[in-house]
Amino acid sequence: YTAAAYIKNRLDIVGVFRSLSYVLEVIFYIVVFSFTTPEVWQVGVAICIAQLVIFGGNYYIYKKYTPELRIRRKSVSFNAIKKLVVNGIWNSINSLGNTLNSGLDLIVTNLWLSDLAMGQIAITKTISSIFMSFNQLLAQPFQPLFLKSYSDGNKEKLISELKLSMKLTGLFSSIVFAGFFSLGKVFYALWIPGQDIDLIYVLTVITMLASVVEGPIYPLYYIYTLTVRNKIPCIITVIGGILNVAGMAILVKYSSLGIYSIVLTTTVIMLFINLVTNPIYMTYCLKVKWFTFYPTLLRTVISCVCITASFILIADVLNPHTWVTFLLTAGLCGVLGCIIHLILVFSKDEKQQLLLIAKNKNK
User: Fold this and answer.
1) CB neighbours of 222 closer than 8 A, spacing ≥ 6?
2) Do the Cβ atoms of 102 and 211 come closer than 8 Å?
């Protein structure tokens, strides 16, 4: 059922149902926790409700936009099924690598440091994970465009669309990093007063540093799906994960970095993967020049530096210290960040292309 949204390029509707599932999940928590004793199993029920909403949305899109689709025995290709299964196995291995890279931080911190340190890392991971999930939301609507251009053999158009998506997700990641770098201490002071704000702030900034590069690179991961080449990226991810855990163990045991070891190793490894191995291998998969995506990536990083500097200046001038002044400052920074990024990164043709995509979605 999920194929219908890709076929008709209506992933925006999928986003609506996904947002609705989040809202219903939160409402369920509020109601259940307000009138009953909170239990862990209730979280599972809430997740099931959210998934049912998403399934219902996918079924609705299928019935409305692709009712002609039917499963026919004569259309079944066992070679295609074999390719999908093998590809799925590599995706599972890739998930193992992702777990080693970012999923074991809390366990490692609890075992090798303390439960207090684990709580501080948990706050850091929660914030970074929320913002990381937006990369997927921003990148996904471009995937049907990538699929069509690749299927048509229009490599020039595909590269253009990939670069445009890089700039769009880079816009969000740059603003988020700059915003947290300049206003993170204020946010934590308002949200968790009494905690070690300075430590948690530094941990969060180190963690989110990788997002400056991961943001613009994220849409390019779909290249592995288009070309059905997941083996090498999976192996690199697993190796990176093993090095990450090993690096944590060595730094915790033989250095004075302490809790900083947990976030530093992950950030360094993810920066290397997204700066070196992924961009180069992605161009190899598409059979284009190895430096194809680096100019866009460099411009995005430069934009992030400029946005961060401007946000720091605004934060120093306005000096927010309440939720109202914090939100107003964040809103002003967000608008200014968009303007800076559009000027430094997007070309005139790309701005027109974004407007065209928005108009088509409205229709």
Assistant:
1) 139, 142, 143, 146
2) no
Of the chain, the percentage scoring pLDDT greater than 70 comes to: 97
Query: Which of 204, 178, 182 lies closest to 339 in space, CA to CA?
Result: 178
Q: Which two tokens stand for residue 253?
A: 């045991």
Q: Residue 2 and residue 85: Cα distance in Å, rounded?
A: 17
For tokens 């299927």, the residue is: 151
289 against 140, higher pLDDT: 289
AA letter at 297 = L
With beta carbons less than 8 A apart as the criterion, state whether 333 and 179 touch: yes
Helix (H) or strand (E) run with residue 48 in it: helix 41-65
> What is the pLDDT, as a whole number, of residue 45?
94
pLDDT at 362: 57
* Tokens representing residue 329 in the block: 């400052």
Helix, strand or coil for residue 288?
coil
**Torsion sign, CA atoms 256, 262, 267, 272:** positive
Summary mean pLDDT of the chain: 88
| Helix H or strand E encompassing 301 | helix 294-318
Tell me the one-letter amino acid at 306. C
Task: Please say whether the beta carbons of 196 and 120 come within 8 A.
Answer: yes
* pLDDT grade for 99, boundaries at 50, 70 and 90: confident
